Amino acid sequence: MTQFSKRKKPTLSEYINGIQSGNRILLSRAITLIESTSPKHVKLAQEIISECLKLKSKSRRIGITGAPGVGKSTFIEQLGTQLIEKGHQVAVLAVDPSSQVSKGSILGDKTRMDTLSTNPKAYIRPSPAGTSLGGVARKTRETIILCEAAGYDTILIETVGVGQSETIVHSMVDFFILLLLPGAGDELQGIKRGIVEMADFAIVNKADGDRDPLVKQTVASYRNALHLFQAKSSNWVTKVNACSALENRGIDKVINEIENYFKLINENDFINVNRQNQAKFWFKETLQSLFETQIFENMDIQKRYNLLEQKVLDGKISPFLGAQEVIDFVFKK
Amino acid sequence: MTQFSKRKKPTLSEYINGIQSGNRILLSRAITLIESTSPKHVKLAQEIISECLKLKSKSRRIGITGAPGVGKSTFIEQLGTQLIEKGHQVAVLAVDPSSQVSKGSILGDKTRMDTLSTNPKAYIRPSPAGTSLGGVARKTRETIILCEAAGYDTILIETVGVGQSETIVHSMVDFFILLLLPGAGDELQGIKRGIVEMADFAIVNKADGDRDPLVKQTVASYRNALHLFQAKSSNWVTKVNACSALENRGIDKVINEIENYFKLINENDFINVNRQNQAKFWFKETLQSLFETQIFENMDIQKRYNLLEQKVLDGKISPFLGAQEVIDFVFKK
Question: Which ranges of chain A have pLDDT less than 70?
């Protein structure tokens, strides 16, 4: 395996060859390029991504969410380890909006997954920092492409159950797992309806020791509740299971359901339809963010923007009319 | 008061004069124009808004959020009624993202506020429907301007505690109230930290009957918790009170705190600084949404967009590179 010093900058083809041959150091350095804001890095990163896209790997992208304390790390540790035992290669990524403020991040402490993090078939990468959730999302999506090119056929993306991050993760995965704690009534209240609706698989974790009646009751409540939702366009009926990641019980059944799901969506082609819709969505999102960058880079537009912003601030025109004038200026130029 | 039939279309000046003289029918029809997507209606609506902006009313914009079941309607009913008794005119609006899916909406059922809805000094308008939360937000912001022009000096904006709607409402108000249920421990878990941080006033509602110890404990817990947060740029220290909207106890103290807050932010000018920042933010948001409209209205750009989107879908280029090419095309044209 070629070694690159920190100082020597690999070329595009060195990156591509390195990533494809499973060189983790080059993979990590390429991801760091994705996370960079320097225009030179952005350019190289995009070239690497475009090359990696051509490899068209067959992968499974799985999102995992749940409130803090539900045991996401232990669950991912067990799930990842068992998937590797079945012959898979597993990458674990994270989308953590709180890292925008605290600069901390989930997965930052790899020791929380000490079995998985030392497994040569696993690759764990903490959430990128970023000024916006949109930026974090783009970087994570691009990291998925690189990990797939590096041969990881199962991508697990962890997120905490706050704000918009689940929606973002849902828009980049094929399968979406919601982890729950035993204790039905309150749980059903506490978790946002929208997230339960997004879930393909609700798993009551911490079915440990003597909690059996409560676990059964929770599973039953969710099964009942999920009946009320509309059928999914994947034709998949959302499953509700129990497991104990800590005691390593029920994970095999989780893997079975994952197999069933991917069998179904490969047969009915939902996997491709869904990924195409996701790509359309992200294309649009990226366009929006580049448009903003462009406005602030062109002096003439910037001037006009400032002028109209001031008019809006002075209450002379509505934000809508002000924005309309900027648009007219941009498109008439 | 001039009457207009449903068929006769009022002119711009008839709208302005009608709104300013407190004609509720014309106010409602102008808001319906804001909610319309027809270009003719949008144009007229924007002219009305621009005229109304010039009136520069002195108003208080107050956001109210809380989980379903916390008693928002009863609280608003009591707060609104007592504010009117003190000489104010009160408009009640709503931002309800769920109305995008269900087409239902909070405030849709005005009978939930039967005292307030029949009060001639109150104006109640349900959440606009919309395809996006951004669209709903713009319409609500513009509705605020019209209500203020119509003489309503207190604007109460209700939202349910799900997803991004509180953040949206927070970005259009001067003061943000979070309603809570008695029962400290779980409550502190259940409500997203970000929302508690946004609150200027946390009110434990349903301090009814014999719940006194629990209410006191909840208030104390929140007071402790809020100590941990950073000081607000308004220099206001977030208050925690209890009230029973149902039994009409404690609402007078709520009004006192509202008075204290607006006294402070008028003195230190935070009210203007904050509104200017909000206007800047909304200007940018509107620009983004108009940019998207523009792309889909220009045939050349639309063609290029479709071409590049297809390349992205075929995995030939990354969404970033595709979007960059669209931007280059738009800005070089």
Answer: 1-7, 97-111, 130-131, 161-163, 184-194, 228-230, 333
A317 close contact with B: CB closer than 8 A: yes
Predicted local confidence at residue A193, as pLDDT: 60
* CB-neighbour burial class of residue A293 (10 A; exposed 0-12, middle 13-18, buried 19+): exposed
Residue B7 pLDDT: 63
Instruction: Tell me the pLDDT band of B69, cut-offs 50, 70 and 90.
Output: confident
Q: Are residue B19 and residue B160 in the same domain, yes or no?
A: no
Bridge partners of A204, per DSSP, are A180, A242
| CA A110 – CA A178 distance, rounded (Å) | 22
Name the H helices within B174-236.
184-190, 193-198, 212-227
As beta bridge partners, residue B178 has B65, B202
Q: Pick from A251, A270, A289: which residue ends a domain? A: A270
Indicate whether B251 and B311 sit together in one domain. Answer: no
Considering the domain architecture, whether residues A118 and A242 belong to the same structural domain is answered as yes
Say if residue A177 is in the same domain as residue A309.
no
Residues 6+ apart with CB under 8 A from B129: B35, B99, B100, B103, B105, B136
SS3 per residue for B287-322: HHHHHHHHHCCCHHHHHHHHHHHHHHHCCCCCHHHH
Supply the ipTM of this predicted assembly.
0.78
Residues B292 and B256 in one domain: no
- Residues 6 or more apart whose CB falls under 8 angstroms from that of B300 comprise B333
Same domain, A151 and A7: no
Segment 252-311 of chain B within 8 Å of chain A by CB: 276, 279-280, 282-288, 290-292, 294-295, 298, 308-309
Long-range (24+ apart) CB contacts under 8 A made by A124-127 are: A124/A91, A124/A92, A125/A28, A125/A31, A125/A91, A125/A92, A125/A93, A125/A94, A126/A94, A126/A96, A127/A93, A127/A94, A127/A95, A127/A96, A127/A99
Same domain? A31 vs A68: no
Chain A contact set for B186 (CB, 8 A): 186
Chain B residues with CB under 8 Å of A193 CB are 162
Q: Which of residues 189-218 of B touch A (CB under 8 A)?
A: 189-190, 192-194
Q: Closest chain B residue to A138 measured between Cα atoms?
A: B320
Q: Where is the domain boundary, A270, A297, A324? A: A270
A275 belongs to a structural domain: no
d(CA B296, CA B39): 15
pTM score: 0.71
